[in-house]
Amino acid sequence: MTPVHGTDRRGLLRGGVTAAALAALGPLDALGARTAGAAPLSKLPASPDYGPLYPVKDAATGLELLRLPRGFEYVSYGWTGDLMSDGIRTPGAHDGMAAFRRPDGLVSLVRNHERGGYTGAFTTPAYNPAATGGTTTVVFDPDAGQFLGSWATLSGTIRNCAGGPTPWGTWLTCEETTEVGPDGTRHGYVFEVPHTGKGDPRPLRQMGRFSHEAVAVDPATGIVYLTEDATPSGLYRFLPASRGELAAGGVLQMLVIPTADGSSYSTYADGTGTQYRDLTWVTIDNPDYAPGEVPPVLQGVTKGAAVFRRLEGAWYGNERVYIVSTSGGPAGQGQVFEYDPAAERMRVLFASPDAAVLNNPDNICVSPRGGIVLCEDGSSGEYLHGLTTDGEIFPFALNQVVVPAGGVAGKSVPAGDYSGSEWCGSTFEPKNGNWLFVNVQSPGITFAITGPWRRGSL
Asked: What distance in Å separates the CA atoms of residue 186 and residue 391, rounded to the nearest whole number?
């Protein structure tokens, strides 16, 4: 594949690519090779390895809440309103999440709750005692396939949407807002939550105040990459003063895609196969801006930084950082970028040509086997999507959550059809990858899915 400078958006694959060559590339390299300059992709009706989707009963409730391929099963847990181990009711609006392997072999899941409003924090510690967002932690036994308990870990925040795990065993939870509370408390920060205990209510102010979405940490350097859910948005990186000690401060920077005249480059309409090289970064001088001051994205633009449309999911895997633009691309239906931090190069791995192929992807994760999972936040059926090793996109799971009249025994969730709710927080059990954990935001449910992963590309 011919490398293409960021200002040359028309560079395409020269020559043919054989099926054998594609198979040897792995899922994401193959995707770039297969689609660069090709006709628009169509979504496979089902994975060629895992097969079509069928209704599957939840091991906990007996309800057919999900459609999955044959051989896969799941168990639900932590429905909104369920009593947790600490006596607190499970908050709603489940969102971003990450899994951590504990020394005793159990798995800790740190889970966001994207709640707004100022009716009171659901636990302590709390950054702003009036704010209703925050995080909870769930414990799962991967050998027994059972959830063991949960508790509240941080509150007093607003709209904890996504975030990301760190190599040192913490979850970075992000506020997707820049609002100011009734008492004047500014929101729009990142907070750190250990997977073994309570979170730190002190905001990591030098990581910026903006509409944070997700983070991905490069374990080789400790650099934190951050996305911003806004248009225009920037792709940021945080250079910590001390590796693994984010509260010690550091420098926030924004990505620059070079242009001939030094102006800000727009990725808004870039399609599959677009490549960017010789990337640089500019420093954001005032990351913790106050109302009335210039926000970080505009500070970056004045220095020539690139802009994106609604950057959301981010995940580190395969020695790359994968980044989702929910409404970018020629059709406005989403882009998936792959950034190589060692080479300072990036490319559009996939830009959806149509909502029927991929409808506004959001959270993203990479399995221990190198495959990718995309959480859809669209309007044409809510799917979890996967990518095959030859670059095709396929549905892996479909939200079919319907709470029947009369509700579910032991649950406080009202009856209703929740199948239009988005998927959030996909994350694999980190050691063996035998379990995929994921949330449905409304009514607020966490699922643990297992099955013959090694039979296919995930």
From this structure: 43
Q: Nearest 5°: phi and psi at 38?
A: -85, 175
At residue 390 the predicted structure's pLDDT band, cuts being 50, 70 and 90, is low
Structure tokens at 2: 């011919």
Please say if the pLDDT value at position 20 is more than 70.
no
Strand-strand pairing, 224-228 and 212-217:
antiparallel
Please state whether beta strands 73-77 and 64-69 pair in parallel, antiparallel, or not at all (unpaired).
unpaired
The alpha carbon of residue 209 and the mean position of all alpha carbons in its chain are separated, in whole angstroms, by 19
Calpha distance 219→229 (Å, rounded): 24
Whole-number Cα distances in Å, 455 to 47, 49, 51, 200, 212: 11, 6, 10, 41, 36
pLDDT of residue 389: 44
Residue type, 237: R
All domains of the chain, ordered by start, with CATH? 19-455 (2.120.10.30)
pLDDT score recorded for residue 221: 97
Residues 312-358: tens digit of each pLDDT: 999 999 999 999 999 999 999 999 999 999 999 999 998 999 888 88
Q: How many other CB atoms sit within 10 Å of the CB of residue 239?
A: 16
- 147 vs 12: CA distance, rounded Å: 48
d(CA 103, CA 195): 12
From first CA to last CA, the distance across the chain in angstroms is 25
Paired strand residues for 224: 217, 238
Question: In the 8-state DSSP scheme, what is residue 217?
Answer: E
**Cβ atoms of residues 144 and 105 within 8 Å:** no
318/340 Cα distance (integer angstroms): 10
Please, which residues bridge with residue 64 across strands? 57
Query: What confidence category does residue 391 fall into, taking pLDDT thresholds of 50, 70 and 90?
Result: low
Contact (Cβ atoms closer than 8 angstroms) between residue 383 and residue 334 = no
* DSSP, res 302: H
